[in-house]
Design a protein that fits this description.
Elements: H1 2-10, H2 39-43, H3 46-63, H4 68-71, H5 76-90, H6 102-106, H7 113-130, H8 134-144, H9 148-151
């Protein structure tokens, strides 16, 4: 018992630190407003469909020799979570977006136009795999397209 007490007394107490990269949580950080109605949400097969699309997108992008290096060393759990939140929010699925702004989350990654093109190709392939109708795909892509100015480095 004395040994246990001594061991506990010598343990370092870890005090949570302030976030390294604090930011204001806001749906506005998603980079686009939600589409009207729930038709697009249904076309993407709801939360399960969006989850499959994002998971497929991330797997494809990591394996993609054109852009895979961009993902090396990134927090993939956070990436998947925030992409799912972002798509759900934009598709009017009733989700909140908790990630940083597009500009802040892509800062210093060196993303170029060709990288963005490869990512869009991977997203289109993931949406096709999920069976999302072409017109619904285009509506999401139209919402995402203006984000390019905050993501691609000049």
């Amino acid at each position: 018992m004395l040994l246990i007490a001594l061991l506990l007394a010598t343990q370092t107490v870890v005090v949570p630190e302030e976030p390294v990269d604090p930011y204001t949580v806001s749906d506005a950080n998603a980079g686009a407003t939600p589409v009207g109605g729930d038709g697009l949400w249904r076309a993407f097969h709801g939360r399960d469909g969006v989850d499959r699309i994002v998971d497929d997108l991330v797997v494809r992008s990591i394996a993609d020799r054109r852009i895979g290096d961009i993902f090396r060393g990134q927090d993939m759990a956070r990436l998947r979570r925030t992409l799912k939140e972002q798509f759900c929010y934009i598709l009017n699925g009733g989700c909140a977006y908790t990630g940083r702004t597009m500009k802040d989350s892509h800062r210093d990654l060196g993303i170029q136009q060709a990288d963005m093109g490869a990512l869009v190709e991977n997203l289109q392939a993931a949406m096709r795999q999920e069976g999302v109708p072409f017109m619904a795909q285009n509506r999401l892509l139209a919402k995402l397209a203006p984000m390019k100015r905050d993501i691609v480095e000049r």
